[in-house]
Design a protein that fits this description.
Strand content: 35-45%
Distance between the termini: 52 Å
Mean pLDDT: 82
Shape: elongated
Low-confidence stretches: none
Number of helices: 3
Radius of gyration: 23 Å
Oligomer: single chain
């Protein structure tokens, strides 16, 4: 601290030197040992923020529940609910081995294009007039739904709804 109680300026401290770099290395080692970055976190962050457009509406995760699909079977089912200002999206993801079947419902219902981003893949389908859609043979992995604006909307009202990324 200087005589005025203010922290020293960068000019007063001088350039970063070998001592500063050694201290920063020790701090990095401490965080790496005590609080490491979880595996896959950076990939999940980049995937989640790669939104379609700034004008899109983001749906937040409201509920996430796992269930057994059958009493004697090995299928597992997961129900996930997303909610945004204009749309609620409910999906049920059923795992049956190497792939996942995604059944979805939109509220309010209506025919809309639906995209599911899974890794590098874009899977597309259409929700029917009741808001129901199905995506079969979806690979496991980090996924994000994009429900596009209903057809025929004027450009200023045509907003897509993008969900947070979830692991299927």
């Amino acid at each position: 601290m200087s005589m005025t109680g203010e922290p020293p300026s960068a000019a007063e401290l001088g350039p970063i030197d070998a001592v500063d770099l050694a201290i920063l290395d020790l701090v990095e080692d401490l965080y790496t040992a005590r609080d490491p970055v979880p595996d896959g976190l950076l990939e999940r962050i980049f995937f989640a923020i790669e939104l379609v457009g700034l004008e899109d509406e983001v749906a937040r995760l409201e509920a996430d529940r796992f269930d057994r699909a059958g009493v004697r079977g090995t299928e597992r089912s997961r129900t996930v609910t997303f909610d945004s200002e204009s749309l609620t999206i409910v999906i049920q993801a059923t795992t049956t081995g190497a792939t996942v079947r995604v059944d979805g419902w939109l509220a309010p219902p209506g025919a809309r294009p639906v995209r599911l981003r899974v890794g590098e893949r874009d899977l597309r389908t259409e929700a029917d007039q009741l808001g129901r859609f199905v995506l079969a043979d979806v690979p496991h992995g980090l996924a994000q739904l994009i429900v596009e604006a209903p057809p025929g909307q004027p450009p200023e009202a045509a907003r897509s709804v993008v969900t947070m990324a979830v692991m299927l």
